[in-house]
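#structure-requests
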Amino acid sequence: IVGEGRNGLTADQILDKYIQAIGGAQQLAKLTSFTAKGTYTGYETDSEEVPVEIFFKAPNLRTTIVHTRLGDNTYTYDGRQAWVAAISEPLPLLALSGGELAGARVDAALSIPARIKQEFANWRAGFPSVSVDGHTLQVIEGATGSDSGVKLYFDKDSGLLVRQVRFTNTAVGMIPTHIEYSDYRTISGVKIPFHWVTTWTHNQSTTQLTEVQPNSAIDAA
């Protein structure tokens, strides 16, 4: 982990503050899985609020199922590879690659970020802070193995993660993905965002969790 921020903090120190803010390393180590239920709204649901389920098991196994009226959209990452099975895709099962695969890896790593320091290489600070709604955000960047890394934005006061920004290189250029996190609630001693808004090019989706069950038994299938 390299690089010192303009406020004098290193990426290492900012990540340490984040881990402490969400409950500390010991509590994170005790949370090894969770299942979640809530609602999802996006372009593929015609802006209709539909049920969503999330299954996560450490290390970095994550599945999200959006139950649309026309069928389920399923997004899965197994720690190395990722797939999408969705009614809007041209194939019944679509393997992700490049920036999309890197993005799935980031989302899985942030689900229970016990190993966030080690998960990505060359964390660095040194970016200008950002002011959002009266809050100062500290910015760090880590390498994900794709064409661009991921930038994480942390509230300077609380230490919580409030934004993720990454880019996917496509035939028409770099496509940004912004994810805004909020509504942190404590589950089994660990603070988890219950609300996030994902924005990319001309589309946006909103996920609101209503229920999270910690340390659930999740079948590998």
